[in-house]
Write a structure and sequence with these properties.
This protein has 288 residues and is mainly alpha-helical. The chain contains 18 helices and no strands.
């Protein structure tokens, strides 16, 4: 497998070779300060699968404790709330597009972790220092966390046997999966994610998240440190505190990243219960 093989696959073979229309519309809504729930409802009305998923989510125990049935998209949007309905819709629109049937890869586990990182990234932002909040666009947080590892998903869909061997080596030898990828291919899923984000026309700070979330210290663009650092920290916390996260997928501890972001390593202990709570929320979304 060469990098050109991967680029060819990303262009024509990957389930997400192009982002779903609903994703792009919802990203515009999320970035528009004048948007409201009606804008989201209008998108859902044109996407029957998305509408059905939102109704199921609104009727789940995560959002509906009253037992009263939610029967319309408008009611579902009101029940969930604007920001959460946009975020859930973004996630559902992407998740439904990808089909991986390899017996040795747990796609639900992948999405559970990605959803958890997305939510924990937002949580950390809220408790972060004022300087961090002043330089990071909060509208980027959920997308950055949700799709930070999209390069791995692309590689597993396109080159499953090669990636299963990589994961076996990683687990057996206790090495981070991206290090084994580099040794074997000469590039990693970070490089693949960055190429894909660039192809999609996503902002450069999101491209940097995809390309440097495992190695933030290798990023040279100081302007994009904060968002990359936030996702790295969220990924680390989810990996350490989550009950189903293999060591091979755990980021390396870089104390310098924590220091430059102004975040305390004590957050790891403070987020143990929250990570488990978020995993339950992620499972709810995945059943929609």
């Amino acid at each position: 497998m060469t990098k050109q093989d991967v680029i060819d696959f990303l262009t024509s073979g990957f389930s997400l070779a192009n982002l779903p229309d609903s994703f792009m519309q919802l990203r515009r809504i999320a970035n528009d300060p004048h948007s409201d729930i009606e804008d989201v409802v209008a998108v859902a009305r044109k996407d029957a699968e998305l509408a059905a998923s939102l109704l199921k989510l609104a009727n789940s125990s995560l959002y509906n404790n009253s037992g009263e049935q939610v029967g319309t998209i408008e009611e579902a949007a009101q029940k969930i709330g604007l920001r959460k309905v946009v975020e859930s819709s973004l996630a559902l629109g992407i998740i439904k597009q990808v089909n991986i049937s390899h017996a040795n890869f747990d796609i639900n586990s992948y999405w559970r972790r990605s959803l958890s990182v997305a939510i924990i990234t937002e949580d950390i932002f809220e408790v972060g220092p004022r300087l961090l909040k002043s330089v990071v666009d909060r509208k980027m947080l959920y997308t950055a966390g949700l799709l930070h590892d999209i390069g791995m998903l692309a590689l597993i869909q396109g080159f499953p046997e090669e990636m299963m061997r990589i994961m076996d080596i990683s687990i057996c030898e206790g090495l981070p999966v991206q290090e084994v990828e580099l040794q074997t291919f000469g590039f990693s899923h970070q490089d693949v994610g960055r190429i894909l984000f660039k192809k999609w026309g996503l902002p450069e700070e999101l491209q940097c998240v995809a390309g440097f979330h495992h190695h933030p210290l290798e990023l040279k663009r100081r302007l994009f440190y904060p968002l990359v650092d936030l996702v790295y920290v969220a990924d680390y916390i989810c990996s350490v505190c989550g009950s189903h996260s293999p060591t091979a997928f755990r980021p390396v501890m870089f104390e310098e990243v924590w220091k430059r972001s102004g975040l305390s390593v004590d957050l790891i202990g403070e987020f143990v219960d929250r990570v488990e709570e978020v995993a339950v929320s992620a499972d709810t979304i995945l059943t929609c």
